[in-house]
Design brief:
The protein has about 140 residues and is an alpha/beta fold. The protein has a domain at about 50-140: Nucleotidyltransferase, domain 5, CATH 3.30.420.270. The chain contains 3 helices and 7 strands, in the order αββββαβαββ. The chain has helices at about 20-40, 85-95, 115-125; strands spanning about 50, 65, 70-75, 80, 105-110, 135, 140. It has a 5-stranded mixed beta sheet with strand order 4-3-2-5-6, with helices on one face. The chain has a two-stranded parallel ribbon with strand order 1-7. The longest helix is centred in the first third of the chain and has 21 residues, at about 20-40. The radius of gyration is 27 Å and the shape is elongated. The protein starts with 20 loop residues before the first helix and ends with a strand. The mean pLDDT is about 80.
Length: about 140
């Protein structure tokens, strides 16, 4: 065999190589899929929020507190019981901003959640020192 990859008979020999182009294509497709589904993941809990004509809040800019009908509360992606909510929220809220710059808090409760439960959570938010509080609603479909 000579140095140009030809055998004595003149036939070309195949050089073993790994073709990475299909692997890169698969990674790019997966990247696009994750980029499209990532924003949807945060609002995956269907709560049946009340509708309002002026709904404009962007909950991705702060802490979202969701109250479900069964009495559980979600602080962003963490599920806590109503009894454990005050201490857990204070832990999370006190560690949100550097230099005491606290994030806004968005409260979401479906129409079926008892009013007393919403008031109890709202009272705990105020006791924790939340000054910037918003209520989440859905935009009315007209």
């Amino acid at each position: 065999m000579n140095l140009q990859g030809r055998s004595k008979e003149g036939d070309l020999q195949q050089m073993p190589e790994i073709n990475v182009v299909p692997l890169i294509d698969v990674f790019l497709v997966l990247l696009v899929i994750f980029m499209i589904t990532a924003p949807v993941i945060k609002t995956a809990i269907d709560m049946g929020l009340p509708q309002a004509e002026t709904a404009t809040a962007d909950p991705s800019q702060g802490i979202t507190v969701k109250i479900l009908q069964d009495g559980t509360v979600w602080i962003d992606e963490e599920r806590v019981s109503l009894q454990a909510f005050p201490s857990r929220f204070r832990d999370i809220y006190s560690n949100t901003g550097p230099g005491g710059d606290f994030q806004p808090v968005f409260l979401a409760a479906g129409e079926e959640v008892p009013y007393g439960t919403v008031v109890a959570v709202l009272d705990e938010l105020r006791a924790a020192g939340v000054a910037d509080l918003g209520l989440l609603t859905q935009k009315e479909n007209r």
